[in-house]
Specification:
The complex is a heterotrimer. Chain B is mainly alpha-helical. In chain B, strands 1-2 form a two-stranded antiparallel ribbon. In chain B, 71% of the residues lie in helices and 1% in strands. Chain C is α/β, with parallel strands linked by helices. Chain C folds into 2 domains: 231 residues, Rossmann fold, CATH 3.40.50.300; 254 residues, Rossmann fold, CATH 3.40.50.300. Chain C contains 17 helices and 21 strands. In chain C, a hairpin with a 2-residue loop joins β9 and β10. The chains are: A mainly alpha, B mainly alpha, C alpha/beta. Chains B and C meet through α7 and α8 of B and α2 of C.
Chain lengths: 357, 305, 506
């Protein structure tokens, strides 16, 4: 007697099921995460309290959640363009860093100056930095047929080292007691709070704007259709005359540009200077956000908020429960696994068959 | 001249984890499965191997424990792509992210603890050969194991029935299924073998190469191993060549940093990653692109019922 | 007739709501060549997959040599003495012929021992094969011989052949028939799956006819006429094509002047100095065995691919050799590619969205945002005018049957009112009614003054539709001649040997 698991395609996928899938995946991942917390000898109830309730009930933490969701939203919206087109940009982390470096470079070069033009210039430089960096894997794929997966990922390490070199070398703050960091940005180079006494800045508004534009592009524009066609059926896209290489380049530029924008927003709005590690792996986390949002812009917006809650919760859990951040990282991977399995169960029914030997 | 055996030995030590992980992934990819989780499996192998070695006070046991840990993680990947037919790229990424976190959890109590070296093995007579003998024929047992693995993989893939079926499944799972070959079972073996070797490579890193555990210590070696498989284009000998070239680059870069040749150290540290891109570029320009990628590589397999 | 080898009774297999096999009974005896006849979609493939252990029936029983058996896998079927020659999908392109033969043989590898056995078997049946060549370098006939040898290596008592002649030239088909006669005379039972009536009448002593998953008749095909068989297969009378009335031909819409195209990858065929003209108002067909450069020609004509090394493609008088598919559409051309799903349509896109694929560049579908109302109207028009049967008002492309999807694709292009229509395999894998409908639609289009080029592997289709016909062989195209002046024998010769007698003799 042998047991056999088989996938049977579903004829129709209800909207309800589509919405429910990521929620179930999240719940399953949370349960497994709770189990692990319990195995580590901590109270899962306490952990859920810190991870989920506190960030949502404390007004200060709620603001932090929105701040944390900003780069996730921007990057994941960009990644949706790539992933929908079946192009695998997994180097958003590097493009995020380059955005920070380019924009931060503007802030450092204009240090001591003031004027309303500095911030926009920084943002533009950040976008340009991310775009240029994303153009490398796109060009290598278009011109030489090299898999963008490996090149985009390799460039993350290079970006980290470049940042490290800059803040230890030419851009190090002379008055910074030899710490590896740049000069602190002046007010003219920092995103200001949207309201008095708060911390939330206009970067969040830009992120929401990106969501809205992306929704329109995918719902109603020819380009959105071309991206989708190119990812789902490359031969059909070719039949439609959509230029495969141009799509590759454009989706990489969009996702690199948005990651770069996220980078400079993070540097200018949150950190206030360049220093190693400002990336925090957000570029990788955004991959999970994109999938949790089922590669839809609106979904990515919601999942950015959910993941931001968890990240803020993780920060306080490190302090209050001594739960290492690695636990959160493990949980993120687990969540992605759960989402992918959920997606599969969306498309297929799992059938157990008992077979006579 | 006296430095040469020493340098060669360090090159071999630097290359061995890459070689082992790439051999495993090579087999996985021949079966038509792309597992991007090598980095994750490797670092879990490194952490588990080190923890097991400390707890049992046996580095040899640690190495086997690390290999098994890599295999356990690959079993998760196998469950996902074989049973749920999930996207292999995304699943591999998830595996890496999960592995990095898991390794941090496993290794958290062991950061900074040093381990003694495993006593080297010398092959009698051959290691007496002047100059090169000592470099090639004296080493840790995993180095010798890696040499055996090269032969095992080449022989297994090309000379055995299982290898024939494995390659057939990789080239076209549709045809293989039509003939009644057990596509999923063969792929399961290939994935687990890849995980075992990735874990072994990781354990080698923490127990033989550096002899301590630190978070994130795989530092992209899993990805470089993946690039080596592309570079090999289906030929084991090219994979071996690539791994030793990379070992050489790593060692040269370390020597250059020590020798302070004026370049910023970050630039030298970036070399392996840039060289990986350069190698893929070279492969493409020399026109051997895609020579050997398995026909159904990365495609999910859902048979009609 | 020898002893009974196989008895299927009451075999039923459903996929969702569709009953692919509905209480099918069939018996096969030793020494018999038994035809399984039916249209595309009649359930032949399902039945054969059940018999080879690839699918499990929902109910019914299988008896082999009188014993009731279950066939959970192809291995089990092979162990029961059943061999299979597939139409597609069972050779490994990058493997040698010998390796391909070794793969399904339990416990064997491609070594000297196997080679000797295969060579002996090949000699016995007169099957010439080069065992060390990779399969992708071999012709369709050679590939099929590998499949047959592979099946024979297991000393089967029963051999199933799925549409074995669809990829063969007439000569190769004759050679295959001779091999099958030998096999049958040595006691094997042969199940011959086909929808070609003439060859069934020539080869088979019994025929089981399937329609809509049910057995509608079991008969001696030699005792009834081809028309009667066709009627049984299709039911309620076969539709006839109405030839277009007399109409004048207009200006040349498509001209190929010495077009040469580099092969597309290792598996491709190079096109060599192709000349062809298609005038407004005529239908020109390109016949030939699959894999002789037809896909490359289609790609070069549509602009979807093909590296042109010399020569010119002209449409409506203009040189379009280096222009993309949309520039060609702008000159009045429309294209129907071979693959309905995944090339002509997005499988997971609704029919309305699929309008965008071929319409976006030449018809106005909205400036900044897509005009979804207009797109929906176009799709509805196509569905109505071209009799596309849909399960819902705007279904996904993948939800339509092959015939209905093909009607949608052809209709979508005709709705653009093209002056030049290029169709690759108009009715491949489509049921007879839809096929006739599609062919008629294309004839009507030509009668209204468009130039129509049809590339077809189906010689009957090519001859039924064309005013003039040319044959592709090895990347060469013969001169297009009026169909009325060509005999089947002449075309067969062109399909096997190409045009030049010197080449044929070589």
């Amino acid at each position: 007697m042998s047991f056999n698991l088989a996938l049977v395609p579903r004829r129709e996928i209800s909207l309800f099921r589509q919405v429910l899938t990521p929620v179930i995946a999240l719940v399953v991942a949370l349960l497994i995460g709770g189990l692990i917390v319990w195995l580590m000898g901590r109270s899962p109830a306490k952990a859920f309290d810190v991870f989920l309730r506190e960030p949502l009930t404390d007004p200060w933490a709620l603001q932090e959640v929105l701040l944390k969701s900003t780069p996730l939203m921007l990057i994941s919206i960009g990644l949706i363009f790539c992933f929908r087109a079946n192009r695998w940009n997994i180097g958003a982390e590097g493009q995020f860093l380059l955005g920070g470096i380019f924009g931060g470079g503007v802030a450092i070069a204009t240090h001591g100056l003031s004027g309303p033009w500095i911030l926009p210039l920084m943002m533009l430089a950040g976008v340009a930095g991310g775009m240029l960096y994303a153009a490398i894997p796109a060009a290598l794929r278009n011109r030489f047929g090299i898999s963008e997966i490996l090149t985009s990922l390799m460039l993350v390490y290079v970006a980290e080292l470049l940042l490290d070199y800059l803040v230890r070398g030419p851009w190090r703050d002379p008055k910074g007691f030899n710490f590896p960091q740049s000069v602190p940005f002046t007010d003219a180079a920092q995103l200001q709070p949207l309201f008095e006494g708060g911390r939330l800045h206009s970067g969040f508004v830009l992120a929401l704007l990106a969501v809205i534009v992306a929704i329109l592009v995918f719902k109603r524009s020819l380009f959105g259709f071309a991206v989708k066609a190119s990812g789902e059926a490359p031969r059909a896209a070719n039949f439609a005359g959509f230029n495969e290489k141009r799509i590759t380049l454009v989706v990489f530029l969009i996702s690199g540009g948005l990651a770069g924008l996220a980078g400079i927003i993070e540097v200018s709005g949150q950190v206030g200077q360049l220093r190693p590690g400002f990336g925090q792996g957000l570029g990788f986390t955004a991959i999970i956000v994109a999938f949790l949002g089922r590669l839809s812009p609106f979904g990515a917006m919601l999942s950015s908020l959910v993941i931001a809650v968890l990240l803020i919760g993780a920060e306080s859990a490190q302090v209050s429960l001594k739960l290492p951040f690695d636990l959160t990282r493990f949980f993120m991977g687990l969540l992605l696994i759960a989402v992918l399995a959920g997606e599969s169960l969306n498309r297929y029914r799992l059938e157990f068959r008992k077979e006579p030997a | 001249m006296e430095m040469l055996p020493f340098i060669l030995a360090t090159v071999f030590t630097a290359a061995t984890p890459l070689l082992i992980a790439a051999l495993g992934e090579h087999v996985t990819e021949r079966a038509g499965v792309l597992n991007l989780g090598v980095e994750g499996m490797m670092i879990v192998g490194a952490a588990t191997g080190f923890a097991a070695a400390v707890l049992t006070d046996s580095s040899v046991f640690g190495i086997f424990a690390g290999a098994l840990a890599g295999m356990a993680l690959s079993a998760v990947f196998a469950l996902m792509v074989l049973v749920f037919a999930t996207n292999q790229v995304a699943t591999g990424l998830a595996l890496t992210i999960m592995g990095l976190g898991l390794a941090g959890l496993i290794g958290q109590g062991f950061v900074g603890q040093p381990r003694a070296a495993i006593p080297p093995v010398s092959i009698p007579l051959l290691s007496e050969i002047p100059v090169l003998g000592k470099a090639i024929f004296t080493g840790d047992f995993v180095f010798f194991l890696s040499l055996v693995l090269i032969g095992f993989v080449a022989w297994g893939l090309n000379r055995t029935r299982f290898g024939l079926l494995l390659r057939a499944v990789g080239e076209s799972h549709g045809s293989a299924h039509a003939l009644g070959l057990p596509v999923k079972r063969i792929r399961l073996v290939a994935i687990l073998f890849g995980g075992l070797l990735a874990g072994l490579a990781g354990a080698y890193l923490s127990l033989i190469y550096t002899r301590f555990w630190s978070p994130g210590m795989s530092a992209g070696r899993g990805w470089i191993a993946l690039a080596l498989v592309v570079f090999a284009g289906g030929h084991v000998w090219r994979l071996v060549l690539g791994a030793y070239l990379f070992g050489g680059i790593t060692v040269a870069q370390l020597h250059a940093q020590a020798g302070a040749i004026g370049l910023p150290s970050q630039f030298l540290s970036a070399l392996p990653y840039l060289m990986t891109i350069a190698a893929l570029l070279f492969l493409s320009i020399s026109g051997r692109k895609g020579a050997g990628a398995a026909g159904s590589l990365g495609q999910p397999f859902v048979p009609e019922r | 007739m020898g002893p009974e080898r196989i008895r299927l009774s009451g075999i039923t297999k459903a996929f969702g709501a569709l009953k692919a096999n509905d209480h099918v009974d069939l018996t096969l005896h030793a020494g018999e060549i038994h035809a399984l006849l039916g249209e595309n979609g009649a359930g032949k493939s399902t039945l054969m997959k059940i018999l080879y252990g690839l699918l499990r029936p929902d109910s019914g029983e299988i008896r082999i040599n009188g014993r009731r058996v279950s066939l959970p896998s192809p291995q089990a079927a092979r162990a029961q003495g059943i061999g299979m020659v597939f139409q597609h999908f069972s050779l490994f392109e990058d493997f040698t012929a010998l390796e391909n033969i070794a793969i399904p043989l339990e416990g064997r590898i491609a070594d000297a021992g196997l080679r000797a056995q295969v060579e002996a078997k090949a000699r016995h049946f007169g099957l010439a094969i080069e065992l060390d060549r990779p399969v992708h370098t071999l012709s369709a006939g050679e590939r099929q011989r590998i499949e047959i040898l592979r099946a024979l290596m297991q000393e089967p008592q029963v051999i199933i052949l799925d549409e074995p002649t669809s990829v063969l030239t007439p000569d190769e088909a004759e050679a295959l028939f001779a091999t099958l006669d030998t096999l049958a005379s040595e006691g094997a039972g042969i199940l011959f799956i086909s929808h070609k009536l003439e060859e069934v009448r020539r080869l088979c002593s019994r025929a089981t006819i399937l329609r809509g998953g049910k057995v509608v008749a079991e008969t001696d095909p030699r005792a009834v006429s081809a028309a009667e068989l066709a009627a049984l297969m299709v039911g309620e009378g076969v539709l006839e094509l109405r030839p277009a009335g007399e109409h004048a031909l207009g200006a040349p819409m498509l001209q190929l002047d010495g077009l040469s195209v580099a092969p597309d990858g290792v598996h491709g065929v190079a096109l060599q100095a192709i000349h062809l003209t298609v005038q407004a108002g005529e239908v020109v067909a390109i016949a030939g065995v699959a894999g002789n450069g037809q896909s490359e020609l289609y790609a070069a004509l549509s602009g979807e691919g093909g590296r042109v090394t010399s020569g010119q493609v002209r449409m409506a008088g203009q040189d379009v050799t280096r222009r993309d598919i949309n520039a060609r559409r702008a000159l009045g051309a429309a294209f129907v590619p071979e693959a309905r799903l995944g090339q002509a349509t997005l499988p997971q896109g609704p029919l309305s969205e699929n309008v965008i694929l071929s319409w976006h560049a030449t018809e106005s579908l909205g400036r900044w945002l897509l005009d979804t109302v207009r797109i929906g109207t176009v799709a509805r028009n196509v569905i109505e005018r071209f009799d596309v049967r849909t399960p819902s008002p705007d279904p996904l492309a993948a939800q339509l049957s092959g015939g209905n999807l093909q009607k949608y694709v052809v209709g979508r292009e005709i709705e653009r009112k093209p002056q030049l229509m290029i169709v690759d395999q108009p009715s491949w894998g489509v049921d007879a009614r839809a096929a006739t409908h599609i062919r008629q639609t294309l004839l009507d289009l030509a009668a209204k003054g468009a130039a129509v080029l049809v590339i077809s592997q189906d010689l009957d289709e090519a001859m039924a539709m064309a005013d003039r016909l040319a044959v592709m062989h090895g990347g060469h195209l013969s001169a297009a001649r009026p169909v009325s002046a060509l005999s089947r024998a002449e075309i067969g010769l062109l399909m096997t040997q190409g045009e030049s007698p010197a080449r044929g003799a070589a």
